[in-house]
Structure formats: C-alpha cells, structure tokens
Amino acid sequence: MGRVLNWSAVCCFSLPSQVSFALLVLAGVLVTGCGLIEPEKAPPACPELIVLKEAKEMTRFEGNGRDLTDVSFEADINNFVSGCILDEETNNLENQVVVRFELTQGPASKGVAEFRYFVAVATLDRKILTRESFGLSTPFEGNQTSLAVVDNIFPTIPLRDGKTGEDYIIFVGFELSRSELYYNRTKL
C-alpha cells in the first residue's frame, strides 16, 4: 500500500492535472479497498489428540487361556490425525478425528475382529467432559491375516468463557476388559 501512495505522489507531479487527479483517486480507492478486504483468519487452535498408552493396543483371547494359541486377534492404534473448524455462529469447535487400526488375526480367530474404542474430550486438567464409545466389526476375508481399518469421528466442543481448542485434549483408546488392561500393563 505504501508503494501505491509513494508512486502516485512522485509520478503525478509531472503528469497533466486530469491524469494526476485520476491517479490520486485510483490510489485512494486502492488504499480504501485494502481496508475492505478482510485478512485471512488464522485457523482455530485444535485440541491435542492423545492415544492413551495403556489403551493403544488390544489382545483379544478366546476362552480362558492366555497362551499364544488362544489369541483371537491383536489390534493396534497405529496412526491418527485430527483437525477442527470453528463454527462462528454457534462458537462450537467442530473436530474430525481419524483413527487407523492395524488388526492381526490370531490362531483362535473366528474370522472377525470385533472391538470397541472411545473418544473423550477433556480439559487440560484431564476432567472428562464427554466420552463416546464406538464399535467396529471387521472380517478377515479369505487368507487375510492382517488388515487396516480407518474410522472417522466428529466430536464437537462448545467454546465458552474465552476458551480455545488449546484448552482441551481429545483422548482415544481401546475399551479394554480388566484382563486386557492387565495384559497390556504387563507388556509395558
């Protein structure tokens, strides 16, 4: 913008008055127009996405045994990503969480991996505000022994009291039975 003003001020003195006036008006329009164009807003701050260490993996056993031959399937949250958009009318932070699961069929498999996982929204002091549970059922087809599954979740966070997405955390993990959680803890 400074260049437009400087250019017209320097150039206009040597031009006829109608041309210099036209250039001054054009420069004024350009400068005024700059105020009309809104600068692009920075994207909203999104909550941090954390996969809980103890709930990142799951080993599902068939029956009461805990031997390698008793494994129905193993699952791992091996990739995740999230993004968000601020709905300015409602002041809600609309999030998208994409979770990728890696599944491996075990010797005791019945040909399908059925499991549940959760997505929880919490404050920075880890107070859970909302928690949703999601179920997936994925067949192992043919000779398939491993596969990947991707799921999309869309949690909404109402922003109040001047809060931003940085004031929240989104937790993801498998819903584990007590024995599955104990098994994971023994592996850590």
Supply the number of helical segments. 3
List SSEs in N-to-C order: HHEEEEEEEEEH
Distance between the termini: 60 Å
Please, what is the average pLDDT? 83
DSSP, total strands: 9
Q: How would you characterize the largest beta sheet? A: 5 strands, antiparallel
Q: State the helical fraction.
A: 10-25%
Q: Name the shape in a single word.
A: elongated
How much of the sequence is in beta strands?
35-45%
| Sequence stretches where pLDDT stays below 50 over 5 or more residues | 1-35
* Rg from Cα: 29 Å
Q: Decide which structural class fits the backbone.
A: alpha+beta
Layout: helices, strands, pairs:
Layout lengths: L1 H10 L5 H20 L11 E4 L5 E5 L9 E17 L4 E14 L6 E12 L4 E12 L6 E8 L2 E3 L9 E7 L3 H10 L1
Parallel strand pairs: 1-9
Antiparallel strand pairs: 2-3, 3-4, 4-7, 4-8, 5-6, 5-9
Helix pairs in contact: 1-2
Characterise this structure.
The protein has 188 residues and is α+β, with helices and mostly antiparallel strands. 21% of the residues lie in helices and 44% in strands. It has helices at residues 2-11, 17-36, 178-187; strands spanning 48-51, 57-61, 71-87, 92-105, 112-123, 128-139, 146-153, 156-158, 168-174. A hairpin with a 4-residue loop joins strand 5 (112-123) and strand 6 (128-139). The longest helix has 20 residues, at 17-36. It is elongated.
